[in-house]
Amino acid sequence: MGYQGAIFDADGVLVDSPHELAWREALKELLEGDWRDIRDRTSWTAERFTTQVYQQRMAGKPRLAGARAALEYFGVPDVDRRTERYADAKQEQVLQLIEQGRFRAFPDALRFILAVKNSGIRVGRHPHPKTPSCSSNGFDSTPSLPNNTSTLRPPTPATPHPRRTSVGLLDHRLSSLPLWTGRPLPSLVAQLTV
Fold first, then answer.
1. Which ranges of the chain have pLDDT less than 70?
2. Residue where one domain finishes, among candidates 48, 74, 99
């Protein structure tokens, strides 16, 4: 018996999410706004918050751990008191960036989804276990392709329309289902194969 279903995570798998930019912009806004009185006591500058800092200190961590890591790296005083505020500001920032369309779907991931679907396997999208719903991060409106679909060459048997969403490529959106969120997600698999 072959595979009956495939489950994909959206954030960072189907979609190149704007987390790095959101972290950077949120800290800049805080240190130039509400936290400006402590800015000179930190090592932060906009230029010092590089991709390397993000990748080495924050990427892949839960939101609060990422916030703490950045604040500690830049020597921000009262880290315990400021971590949650920075994490919340980052989340607000990522939602704004998504709403503005400042993210993209990975063309290779979308080609893979099409190949899986074309082989007769049902596909679904799963929310991150720390996020109750992908739609809470705006991914229910994720554009699936760049405007120039020629980047999807060689063509697959079913080529999506340039305005079609990645959600439209999926048979199931599992983000709204009440599911147990541990691994290996047996209830998720059960919902997908129904």
1. 1, 125-194
2. 99
Please check whether residue 148 is in contact with residue 142, taking contact to mean a CB–CB distance below 8 angstroms. Answer: no
Same domain, 29 and 76: yes
DSSP one-letter code for 11? B
21: buried, middle or exposed (CB in 10 Å: 19+, 13-18, 0-12)? Answer: middle
CB atoms within 10 A of CB 27: 24
Q: What total of structural domains would you count in the chain?
A: 2
Q: How far apart are the first and last CA of the chain?
A: 16
CB atoms within 10 A of CB 123: 18
The pTM is what?
0.63
Q: 150: Cβ–Cβ under 8 A, 6 or more apart, which residues?
A: none
